[in-house]
Amino acid sequence: MDAPSDAETALDRVYDIQAPREQTLPLVVASPHSGRFYPPEFLAAARLDGRTLRKSEDAFVDEIFAAAPHLGAPLLRALFPRAFLDANREAYELDPEMFADSLPAYVNTRSPRVAAGLGTIARVVANGEEIYRGKLRFADAAQRIARFYQPYHTALKDLIDASAARFGHCILIDCHSMPSAGSAERERDGRRVDLVLGDCFGSACAPVVIDTAERLLRSKGYTVNRNAPYAGGFTTRHYGRPRTGVHALQIEINRDLYMDEATLDRLPFLPTLAEHMAELVATLGAIDGSPLRRR
Question: How confident is the model at residue 6 (pLDDT cuts 50, 70, 90)?
Fold first, then answer.
């Protein structure tokens, strides 16, 4: 399956908000890495084919959480792909080796993400292959960040602020998938880890949020890790401020559960997984809000 080539690759819309008729749950659900509309100029600059680029996507994660609006919570989806721009990074985490010109002093060039080639504008795809044929210019990166990154985060902040104002608190679920090999740890008995919940080691949400999520998911038969190997990315760290009434929880779903990672095809379990994630959204939305509000 190659990258899409229809008219939507023009990306007239940077993101999509699937809003409920009336928001009844104090939740915002976000999928920053499931976008699959690839700008033609990006494809022209890439040395990789569309199928390889798509392996960086959190494919179908937006579909897995599609019930959120029907349950009373908005779903925010980035429409641009992760290989093009990563919304789960600081605005300017950039690798200077990728650029023909020098970078401004405010750019973070030394983060672990940059060192791994996975900054705001990635140098490599998930399997470590270099994305670009040649060097980029910083002006192009700055334009990409202004055009895609900033509007996505403005929309996310607006949804969080509106939810907190309406309900007195907000739970942000930041939704991702993880490859089955390499980064996904296994239990001591060798079983696959199905899901990783990240709360930045307790700093991004109240304990009741991650406790409730883990209890429900384990009751469905999933193996669940906390904060290993994913404790939470920029979104979880930046927006998770329990003292202000905003609680952020990152969830990573093992792709082996629901998709063929080689062909990027859905597996039969995907609808069942989506049902379970719908139950997760409903369950988190039903948590007593009194201990979650601004302190």
Answer: very low
φ/ψ of 85, rounded to 5, equals -160, 135
Taking the model in full, what pTM does it have? 0.93
Identify the residue with better confidence: 8 or 164: 164
Task: Report DSSP state, residue 95.
Answer: -
Q: Which long-range contacts (CB under 8 A, 24 or more apart) does 146-153 make?
A: 147/14, 148/11, 148/14, 148/78, 148/80, 148/84, 148/85, 148/87, 149/85, 149/87, 149/91, 149/120, 150/91, 151/14, 151/15, 152/14, 152/15, 152/32, 152/76, 152/78, 152/87, 153/87, 153/91
pLDDT tens digits, one per residue of 109-141? 999 999 999 999 999 998 889 999 999 999 999
Alpha helices (runs of H) in the chain, residue ranges in sequence order: 40-45, 50-54, 61-64, 68-71, 112-115, 138-144, 150-167, 207-219, 234-239, 270-285
Interatomic CA distance for residues 27 and 171, integer angstroms: 5
Distance CA 14, CA 149 (A): 9
